[in-house]
Structure of Carbonate dehydratase:
Amino acid sequence: MIRKNPRGDLPQIHESAYVDQTAIICGKVIIEENVFVGPYAVIRADEVNADGDLAPIRIRAHSNIQDGVVIHSKSGALVDIGEHTSIAHRSIVHGPCVVGNNVFLGFNSVVFNCSIGDGCVIRHNAVVDGTDLPPGFYVSSTLRIGPKTDLSTVPRVPQEATEFSEDVVRTNHELVQGYKKLQNEF
């Protein structure tokens, strides 16, 4: 479902993107080319700040927002998801938040009030909250990274994790193409 927010902002969705008909895209959302938005995802840009302003939620080219993902923002803060990035099933991205290019967020991961650098891998059920994660960091499953975390203890992304992330992006790009063709059959 594509709908306006109470302020009247309507999502902007590139014609080459695929948004599943069960997804909800609301308000000041910008979805760029070849993005996949899976079933039951919710991307909602509807809260304004004290001045009535609202930054967009932007999903950059060739990224994928998988089944049941929730992307929202507190008080109109920016959410920007980079190119070739995968947000896996049931993850939560809550603004303010910037997620870089070539990032992988695993199942049920949560990122809030943070910046995730290019090439990072956040594994399943991990949390990054209130801190900036530099490029190329690997957050293992169930780990919580916060403002008091000593980042020198967080490992760099291993090659096999990078290859896995690239494969997920490739697979979802193929899904965009396949589902776009199916749309034309009905």
Notes: The first strand starts at residue 2 and ends at 3. The CA atoms of residues 106 and 123 lie 4 Å apart.
